[in-house]
Specification:
The chain is mainly alpha-helical. The chain has helices at residues 11-33, 44-62, 67-75, 78-88, 100-115, 118-133; strands at residues 91-93, 96-98.
Amino acid sequence: MQVSNVSFQGKKEVLRGLNKAVKSAYNAEISRSYSFGPRPEYRGPMVEKFKGKLEAYTDMAVNDDMFLPVIKEVENNKIVMSDFVQNLRSKRLNYGDISPINLFSRAMTESAEGTLNENVQKAVKSFLSKLKEY
């Protein structure tokens, strides 16, 4: 187990959580893609590891007190949004398709619903719809 002494608060924590969640969704889908094709390779534990990270990072971001102002700022930042979209874009691989956006959307929605805060839920829905429009 690796312990990090890096301490983030507010905006940096939310942005870090979102970035790590996006990368975890992508890595989970790439690991899952190894089961496609004529010589599939079982990567179930890796997929579950990345899904666990995805859930942890979305919870970390969504439950932060600064989530609402930061998510509104991110929605209007074309550079950050295009970076997210690039990593979450659905792709056709040789033997199947991957769709990290679906995995990411599900995790963000579940985290938002866990907060029981309607403003957070609305902000997440707005963020995800803008992400899918890009």
